[in-house]
């Protein structure tokens, strides 16, 4: 499998507080990597650094052969980011938002429609796609943000709690779309508090605690270390309850 994203020695400090402490992370073709950890573990900070929204205090990031920030424009063409709070432009319709994001990557309106409409239909947004996005529920905004990011078919899709606010059917559809995207040779990094989803969806799991990676492996490898469940391992490593 080819390496799509590589981070080495990634750190982020806020004064004397260390939010992310020397994290090494790799995403390869065909992988779905779940990033787990309690609130404050450093997951969102790590994702913001990987997507150039936050400058690392130290460390290196590269997408394929493009280092960040030295080759920033080419690197940005290779990833898509779905935030936990979708960054939807105010007062535009859902369809206008998709067209705007697709246009930023240089796609024609015809190509955007061909790529986005099947996803709009799968997420059952057809009746609301031409309404203003500010009237969307959180779950609808999550679906819209994902569709917009998938228009340019990113080699690495990074998603921070993407299923929050989704009904069970939409969450299942999103997971199916993730599997298809990875099966096409792309990579996915997602954070979630849903251990069952991580266990069934992810090909590899990373657990963070206090800014550090404390465990990593396939769901089977993690469970087989002490013949334990993923939930028990998470609790033992983090001391946190799970939902």
Automatic annotation (TrEMBL):
Alphabetized UniProt keyword annotations: ATP-binding, Nucleotide-binding, Transport
SMART domains listed in its UniProt record: AAA (SM00382)
Database matches in PROSITE patterns: ABC_TRANSPORTER_1 (PS00211), ABC_TRANSPORTER_2 (PS50893)
This protein's record includes keyword ATP-binding: yes
Domain (ABC transporter): residue spans on this chain: 5-235
GO MF annotations in UniProt: ATP binding
SUPFAM superfamilies registered for this protein in UniProt: P-loop containing nucleoside triphosphate hydrolases
Entry-linked PANTHER family: ABC TRANSPORTER ATP-BINDING PROTEIN
Protein name: ABC transporter ATP-binding protein
Species this protein is from: Alicyclobacillus dauci
């Amino acid at each position: 499998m080819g390496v799509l994203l590589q981070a080495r020695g990634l750190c982020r400090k806020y004064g004397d507080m260390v939010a992310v402490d020397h994290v090494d992370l790799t995403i390869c073709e065909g992988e779905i990597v779940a990033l787990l950890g309690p609130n404050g573990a450093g997951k969102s900070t790590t994702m913001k650094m990987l997507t150039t929204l936050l400058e690392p205090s130290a460390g290196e990031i590269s997408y394929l052969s493009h280092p960040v920030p030295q080759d920033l424009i080419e690197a940005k063409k290779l990833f898509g980011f779905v935030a936990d709070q979708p960054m939807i432009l105010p007062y535009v319709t859902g369809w206008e938002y998709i067209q705007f994001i697709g246009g930023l990557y240089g796609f024609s309106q015809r190509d955007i429609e061909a790529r986005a409409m099947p996803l709009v239909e799968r997420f059952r947004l057809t009746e609301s796609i031409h309404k203003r996005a500010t009237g969307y529920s959180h779950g609808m905004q999550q679906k819209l943000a994902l569709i917009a990011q998938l228009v340019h078919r990113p080699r690495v899709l990074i998603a921070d709690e993407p299923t929050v606010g989704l009904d069970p059917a939409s969450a299942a559809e999103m997971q199916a779309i993730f599997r298809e995207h990875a099966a096409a040779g792309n990579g996915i990094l997602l954070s979630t508090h849903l251990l069952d989803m991580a266990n069934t969806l992810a090909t590899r799991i990373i657990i963070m605690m206090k800014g550090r990676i404390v465990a990593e492996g396939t769901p089977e490898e993690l469970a087989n270390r002490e013949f334990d469940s993923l939930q028990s391992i998470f609790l033992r490593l983090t001391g946190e309850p799970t939902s």
